[in-house]
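Render Phosphate ABC transporter substrate-binding protein in 3D.
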Amino acid sequence: MRNSVKIALLSLMSITALSCKKEDKSPSYHKGDLTILTDESFKSVTEALADGYMINYPETHIKIVTKKEDLGFLDLLNDKARIAVMSRDLTPEEKKTYEEQVDLKFLPAKFAADAVVFVVPKDSPKQTISIDEIRSGLESEAKNFIFDGTNSSNLNFVAQKLNKQPKDLKFSIIPGNQNIIEELGKYPDKIGVIGLNTFSRPYDKASEKLRDMVKVLPVQTKEGVYTSDFANMREMKYPFTRVLYFLTNEGNFNIANGFIRYSCTQLGQMIVQKEGLQPYNIYKREVQMR
């Protein structure tokens, strides 16, 4: 009788252990490790969202890896990370490759409006820049525009807006958005091209210091002259407004999709706004009381 009880107990313990192991391997959005690939231009907002998620879910551990946009997309396709942050529109061929390799429908999770901005030294007499100036400048051997590198989100996006291939543009390089700002004073005739999120945080001391070093040029179009403020980004009037979005290769509701959902909720969108970017999914509402 005792042997029968022992056997029954051992069997029950084995079943329980197997159940626990199975449960540990099941998808979970609130615990586990996640690596997110992001271009340096929008690293700050990605880090802020990751910090917020880890505060809400202490058993999650999110690592932010900085990688040029195109290379991050390739790593996502090759299953080297579960999320990549993107800004440019993918080509039809890239979308097809994504759906074939990842085996998911292409559904970008848009979460913020950012911008590519053109900056000059603070004492520069230049006040605005036109689309035609940008186009002709990027065709000139003078290479007066400074980007943070090839394969970068800033270069890709500007090229896309001008209906050009990045390889066809002529430009100078200083690696890193912050480095462009800090070194631009050495090149008074050059124009730096950086991501707004580099110094968009309104109450951050480091951002304030960077903003004080340069002048951001409004962009002139046929319709008018536009700055990269909230209203112009929200209405897409600033011509170099870009929408940031997440791509994932995760097919179930695990930590990657949990993070994406969090970033697009009101709490995540409030973090986006505190970063000085325009939230994509919530807008400021004004209510008149009578």
